[in-house]
Specification:
By secondary structure, the chain is α/β, with parallel strands linked by helices. It has 13 helices and 13 strands. The two termini are 33 Å apart.
Length: 320
């Protein structure tokens, strides 16, 4: 479904001057306004954070009225009746670990050591995203934001062909964006909303979310600023996931913990901000020829593990 264009002027409280300013930075519809933060809007239109928050709330009310967003108070029974939109990972075992697959309206984080399969999961998900929901896809396009330069078009083509899909069609459905530094990533994040709406995007991938922050904010003095920026980015991703009902996949690296002497010394990087910001956290590790995924944090899954393989098909089952 293409998302309708809802001009800003339909939102209560948007005067011509404000509309003009917001449009100047690419916020040109109720969707983009609804997925912005008050701080972001305040820095563009001036005034105080109360007014900025009011404009965002008005945009959200408008989208609720139009049926694009859920009402603020919904009966739990109605939530129970709703069908979840999920994207297959390519492996049935990994999908069942995630109770069906990678959910929309959520952030799913995969973390693990180098070579544990994080980027392979991203490649496979971006191939499968355009499939119809009955075939495990989300029926839309994918954005692949690459901070490490490890995206491989050949690998996408290989995964598509091994799965009997038309590689040229799949390549047309993946929008690639190489990001070189944190300010660049922040600019891209700001313009994501309009891009999602105009290009039928159903999945946004950031592979990896932490890499640039780790290399640009070094030492304890820089930690507070790094975490504040990371927090703003996670909030933005949450808002986008909710407003556009898209899936978001982020990958994260591990850091060794000097205090964990006997236990597993690999903790996810990014501290509490990433820990609280991700809806689902999955730890990946190698195990012989296979990979093990463990669900570490989830609002409703108990701790459990699944085994999967990486083959020509990308992520797949061990008996595939
Ligand atoms: P870093 O980004 O370095 O932290 O690691 P990562 O977790 O992203 O690792 P990635 O997903 O790139 O996994 C790399 C591993 O996937 C390789 O060691 C291979 O085992 C496997 N792999 C990569 N490409 C192929 C391929 O074309 N065919 C097969 N069968 N396996 C592949
Ligand atoms: Mg990688």
């Amino acid at each position: 479904m293409n998302i309708e264009d809802i001009p800003l002027r339909k939102v209560d409280g948007i005067e011509e001057r404000i509309e003009h300013r917001l449009a100047g930075v690419g916020i040109d519809s109720a969707f983009e306004l609804a997925s912005s933060s008050p701080y972001e809007i305040m820095s563009i239109v001036g005034g105080d954070s109360y007014n900025a928050a009011l404009l965002i709330a008005n945009a959200r009310s408008h989208l609720i009225k139009k049926g694009y967003m859920a009402r603020e108070f919904i009966a739990a029974s109605e939530i129970a009746r709703r069908k979840k939109n999920v994207l297959s990972t390519g492996s049935k075992a990994l999908d069942s670990l995630l109770a069906g697959g990678i959910e929309t309206d959520s952030i799913t984080e995969f973390y693990g050591a180098f070579g544990s399969g994080k980027s392979q999961i991203c490649h496979t998900a971006s191939v499968l995203c355009n499939l119809k929901p009955e075939d495990g896809g989300l029926g839309g396009n994918a954005i692949y934001i690459d901070t490490e330069g490890t995206f491989r078009v050949n690998r996408i083509a290989q995964i598509a062909e091994a799965r009997g899909l038309n590689k040229d069609e799949i390549l047309d459905c993946i929008f690639y964006c190489r990001v070189f530094n944190v300010p660049h990533l922040e600019t891209v994040a700001r313009s994501l909303g309009g891009y999602i709406r105009k290009n039928r995007i159903k999945l946004v991938i950031i592979d990896s979310i932490i890499n640039l922050f780790r290399s640009e904010f070094i030492g304890r003095e820089a930690l507070a600023e790094r975490q504040q920026k990371l927090n703003a980015l996670m909030h933005k991703l949450h808002n986008l996931a909710e407003v556009y009902d898209i899936a978001v996949i982020i990958t994260n690296q591990v850091q060794s913990s000097p205090t964990a002497y006997f236990t597993d010394t690999t903790n996810p990087a990014g501290g509490n901000i990433l820990g609280h910001g991700s809806t689902y956290r999955i730890y990946l590790k190698r195990s012989g020829n296979y990979r093990i995924a463990a669900i570490i944090d989830s609002p409703y899954h108990p701790y459990s593990e699944a085994r999967f393989a990486i083959t020509d098909k990308g992520v797949s089952d061990t008996d595939d």
